[in-house]
Amino acid sequence: MTDQTFTHPSVLAGIAAGAGWADPTMNPADIDWTARRAAAAIPFPLVDGRPVNPYAPTGIRYGRNELGHWGEALAADAIVTASDSDGGRWLLLIERDDNHGWALPGGHVDPGEDSTAAAFRELAEETGLIADPTDPWVTTLPARYVPDPRASDEAWMVTVPVRIDLGHGWRVLPDVTGSDDARRAAWLPATDYTALALHLDIAYGGRVFPAHRELLADVLND
């Protein structure tokens, strides 16, 4: 079978427009990988000067698929929970505007930005919820690879999950509104992952973003 090569037209359009999220070079071998590999959250190899996803294969051997950044792109995601006055646990999710489903509020970590700060920034931008990063119930988890459906063997996502527990006894959960990259934001019942996915399907006809399924199952079923 011939190795598949694919880069989505949206990436090419981003390059043409000078978008900061897209590496301008079409050949990753032209990149100086010394600094990128040193800064990577998860080590990865090079083959003939080209980055290789440490969790390959993805089905796309060469090219960037729908991601603009060659190699590892670092994101941060906010896992925001709250418990109501009856003891039920709720999780804040956003509906992505790219038709990939419902996801945790989050996004790329800017150059020089702290990952935890990035999670709080993205939370505010996508839901309008302002949380306190100094709260003792905030926990930054280790970086982990996520199986993003937009990835390839040469471009992939790693995220830093940040758990933000807003506490117990809520009679009315905080207001949230989808904005930026989110069509909408909503609190969903999350006793465990199965309950979350079922409610999302019944109430919204939605599905969990594939990159966040394993992460959420690990967190909610813990």
TrEMBL record:
Q: List the InterPro entries hit by this protein, alphabetically.
A: Nudix_hydrolase, NUDIX_hydrolase-like_dom_sf, NUDIX_hydrolase_CS, NUDIX_hydrolase_dom
| Entry keyword Hydrolase | yes
Q: Which UniProt keywords apply?
A: Hydrolase
Give the source species: Micromonospora tarensis
Q: Does the keyword Lipid metabolism apply?
A: no
Please state every residue range assigned to the domain named Nudix hydrolase: 69-210
Q: Which family does it belong to?
A: Belongs to the Nudix hydrolase family.
The protein's matches in Pfam families, at most eight in alphabetical order, are given as: NUDIX
Coiled-coil region list:
none
Organism superkingdom? Bacteria
Task: Enumerate the PANTHER family for this protein.
Answer: ADP-RIBOSE PYROPHOSPHATASE, DIHYDRONEOPTERIN TRIPHOSPHATE DIPHOSPHATASE
The record's section on SUPFAM superfamilies has: Nudix
The protein's name is NUDIX domain-containing protein
